[in-house]
What does this fold into?
Amino acid sequence: MERTVMQLNVGIVGVTGYTGQELLRRLRSHPEVRLSYLAARRLARPEPVGRLLPAFAKQALPKIERFDPAAAARQCDLLFLALPHGLSMEIVPALRKRQPEIHLIDLGGDFRLRSAAGFRKAYGLTHRAAPLLGKAVYGLPEWFREVIQGAELLANPGCYPTATALALAPLARAEKIGGPVVVDAKSGVSGAGRSVKPELSFCEVNEGMRPYKVDRHQHQPEMEQTLGRIGRQSPRILFAPHLIPVNRGLIASCYVPLKGKLTQSGLRALFEAAYDKEPFVRLLPEGSWPDTAAVNQTNFCDIGLAIAQTGKQAIVISAIDNLGKGAAGQAVQNMNLMFGFPETMALT
It folds into this structure.
């Protein structure tokens, strides 16, 4: 495999989806990356990028091919898998068999949970690569940076778990969560993917808002698992996701019963200690609350917080771009850590 000096040969599988396109946009401008392989699952023959993705016409990019594990393994040092859940667990073993040194970042849910039983319960599928679950590194840089730096197989967190974990992790670490946490989250339609579904058509989504998979969402155990790794216990999450009629953006409002006393200044001190040096987490001034418009097209997570008037609960609200910090942006941040590039490179 030819490798340009100082550049990494990178491929994207699932490049025609919303997350795949966002990866393409961000990686195109990365000075340490050479895009060597672009693939989609349902192509009869290779197609120029501009024919399938007009926004990328007349740009020096390889053609989009039907995915072939042998070709991907041969042409890539690193491969991003931007696929629906259930597909990467079939692909990853085939890639590793052909090229044991290949690095993989999976943006689906196949390697986020640590047990095959947990995966089956969350996704309703039998995991076909269960031995790899213990080898995959969970890619939330603010909390697991050191292990990410040595990762070969990385599970990029989901959008809801990213927003929720960043909002709750400082409280989990301080053992201040005193009971079930209510997470009321709202996401733009791109979070549901690009597949054609009647319930996601314009007339069904426009001028309305609706909850879905209440207390049954597949991201719920991922949130609990992540917070359990950061703190001593996994808090119960009562999760109510909502679909809102915007293209992108996600906001998570978290209502936390407190263990012991905590003042407003004490709450803020916990978050400042956790995030003051983090390049992509912005703790908003007291009395200010996040707005998805401020984080869209970025890799930032904005957080606002307060102690409730009762003094017994904390209210923490986070906002991210579901395609940025909730998907492609965080994946590029993880790639930078894995290969020793500046963590903020090609990200805003």
In short: Residues 1-5 have pLDDT under 50 and may be disordered. The two ends are 31 Å apart (CA to CA).
